[in-house]
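Sequence only, no structure available. Ideas?
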Amino acid sequence: MSLRSFMDDIAPKFEKGGKLEWLYPAYEAIDTALYTPGKVTGGAAHVRDGLDLKRIMMTVWFCAWIPALAGSYVLGANANEAMQAAGITAVEGWRGIFLNGLISFNPNNVFDCLIHGLAYFLPLYVVVFAAGIAFEIWFASVRGHEVNEGFFVTSILFTLTLPPSIPLWMAAVGIIFGVVIGKEVFGGTGKNFLNPALTGRAFLYFAYPASMSGDAVWLAVDGVTQATPLGNAAVGLEYGVEWSQAFIGAIPGSIGETSTLAILVAAIILCLTRIASYRVMLGTLVGMAATATLFNLIPSTNPMFTMSWSWHLVLGGFAFGAVFMATDPVSAAMTNTGRWLYGILIGFMCVLIRVVNPAFPEGMMLAILFGNLFAPLIDHFVVQSNIKRRMARG
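Reply:
I predicted one. C-alpha cells follow.
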C-alpha cells in the first residue's frame, strides 16, 4: 500500500464525525506537508501566482537550512578550536554519549566540525518544533481550523537566533511564548502584526538575559568564554577578526546569524523565486548604510560611532534579520513603496540602537519589531497618498 493510499484510508477517522475528529488539524498538517493540499484557491480575484502557502513556506524553510548548516559548521569549528587550546578531549553531558568516540574534535576536520555543531543545533530545533507545534495544533483544534505551514518557518528561524548553549527547556518556553502571544492570541497566521520568532526571542532576552547575552553563551564548550566581535566593538575593543572572516562566518554568535555569505546565497534564492521582497532587503541595507555613514561623521568618544556600514552588515544579526525576519509577508509592509520605507526604518533603527545604546549592541531584533508596529501605518499613508494623487489627476 502506498503512503498516499494509507493517508486516504485513515482520513475518515479524522474528518467530521470520525472517532479522531479532534486530531484532524494534526492529520491535515502531516498530509499537506507530504502532498499538495486538496483544496486550493480557485477564484480569479484571489489568485496572484502559482504558489500556495505551503510552497512559499517550504521554500523559506529550505533556504533557512543554508545558514543553519553554515552556522553549525562554524559553531563546531570554534568549539573544536577552543577545546584544542584548552586541552579538552571529550564532551561532557548527554551529548558526549553521541560525540565522544564518533569525532576527534579536530578543528581542521570538516566532518568533526559539522557533526559537533549539529549536536547543538538539531536538539534545539527538535525541542523548539515539538513544543511549538503542540500549541499550534492545540489552538487549531479548539478553533476548528487547519494547522498552518508557517510554523515550519517560525520554528527554524527562532532556533537560528538562539545561542548554542541555551538550555533546551528555555528554548521551548521561548517558542511557546512566540506562538501564543506573538500570533495565536491575534487569530493565528495572517493576523499577527509581530514576527512570532522575534517575539519569542525578545521574551527570552529580557526574561533570561544571562542565557542570551554575554561572553559565556556563544561557544559550545563548558567553562570557555568568547565575546562576539560586536560585543567587543561596543566596549571599544578590537573586533578580533578580519572583515572577510566575519563575512564568511568564522565568528561566534547565534547559530544562523554568523555567515553573511550563506545568508546572501539564501537571499538570492528567495528573491529569484519572488518569495521575499528585495525592496525590504535593499531598503534595510540603505537605511543601515546611510545611518552608519552619518554617525561616522560625528565626533564622539563612543567607539560605535566609528563602525562603518560594511562592518554593521557582517556583525550580529543584521543580515539574517534583513533577509529572513524583516521580509515576513504578514508583519511587513504590503505596498511596494511601503516596503522601501519599512526597510529603511529598520536599517535606521538597527544602527541607532547599536550606536546610541552600547549596552544593547545587537539592535536588529528590536528594530524589526519596531518596524512591525509601524508597517500598517506606513501602508496606510502610502495608500492615501496614491488615492490623493489619482484624484488630483481627475
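The first helix runs from residue 3 to 14.
Hope that gets you unstuck.
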